[in-house]
Amino acid sequence: MRNKLSREEKLFIRDFGMNLKALREERNLSQTKLEAISGLSKNQVWRIENGEVNTTISNLVLLSSALEIEIPELFNFKS
């Protein structure tokens, strides 16, 4: 199992986080409110939005449900 992410992977994770933030802000939700609605742990949304974590598939399901969007919309951005 590899531990290091490539530059492209890091940029993709950053861009994903920026898109998540934009989607959240379009819905006038704070990070704390999105965490509460989605059931994510404290500060998890901040870490995802700032590209600090490579989030899980289960978190994608929680986030898309909380934002009331389909999962592919989370990836609707240019990296």
From TrEMBL:
Domain HTH cro/C1-type: 20-74
Annotated keywords: DNA-binding
PROSITE patterns: HTH_CROC1
SUPFAM superfamilies, per the entry: lambda repressor-like DNA-binding domains (SSF47413)
Gene3D superfamilies according to UniProt: lambda repressor-like DNA-binding domains
Protein name: Helix-turn-helix domain-containing protein
Natural source organism: Flagellimonas spongiicola
